[in-house]
Automatic annotation (TrEMBL):
One Gene Ontology cellular component: cytoplasm
Domain Arf-GAP: from-to ranges: 15-139
Matches recorded under Pfam families: ArfGap
Membrane-spanning segments: none
SMART domains the UniProt entry points to: ArfGap (SM00105)
PROSITE patterns recorded: ARFGAP
Keyword annotations from UniProtKB, A to Z: Metal-binding, Zinc, Zinc-finger
Organism (species): Naegleria lovaniensis (Amoeba)
UniProt name for this protein: Arf-GAP domain-containing protein
InterPro entries membership: ARF_GTPase-activating, ARFGAP/RecO, ArfGAP_dom, ArfGAP_dom_sf
Single GO MF annotation: zinc ion binding
């Protein structure tokens, strides 16, 4: 038998590598709903997720923000592997759920309501409403503070309050002229 493809330039991580990654504490349950043994990975965000939360991403979120791959069925490239290795559920949740209290989270996650779960995932990854201010997470990037992620410029909806009922509360500003 001869291996047809010798893609050494873009070597995929081995199944063992991926398995090892999935056993890292935090990665053993879905980053969003905590279902055990998630078999899917958001290789853009760097989190392990269950099939339900993977499906919500696919139908609601652009692949430029969330990109889902199977732990076993898809081919990964080294860059994706390195990216996910450097992040993982614990690190990402610490950042993206920094301002989320456990009671609010459980209202979303344990609601059994897929619409609420959609709202939760979009709020968490797209609008980043519960994210830590990037300014406070500089320890990871020792670069010039001015050269921060361009995410800073995209995220402008962070101040919106999103509640489990799905309503976006935005301040109403009334100018009263008499
Ligand atoms: Zn999940």
């Amino acid at each position: 038998m001869s291996s047809k493809q010798s893609s050494s330039d873009n070597a995929s991580p081995s199944p063992q590598d991926l398995l090892k990654l999935s056993k890292i504490p935090g990665n053993e349950s879905c980053a969003d709903c905590q279902v055990p043994k998630p078999q899917w990975v958001d290789v853009a965000q760097g989190v392990f997720i269950c099939i339900q939360c993977a499906g919500i991403r696919r139908s609601n979120i652009s692949v430029t923000i969330c990109r889902v791959k199977s732990l076993n069925l898809d081919r990964w490239n080294q860059a994706e592997y390195q990216h996910v290795s450097s992040l993982g559920n614990l690190i990402v949740n610490r950042r993206l759920e920094a301002k989320l209290d456990s009671e609010t989270k459980s209202q979303f996650v344990h609601s059994g309501n897929s619409k609420l779960m959609e709202t939760f995932i979009v709020s968490k990854y797209v609008h980043r409403v519960w994210a830590q201010d990037d300014r406070n997470t500089k320890s990871e990037h020792d670069e010039d503070p001015i050269m921060s992620d361009d995410r800073d410029h995209i995220i402008t909806t962070r101040d919106q309050m999103i509640t489990p009922s799905g309503h976006h509360h935005q301040p109403m500003i009334n100018f009263l002229h008499y």
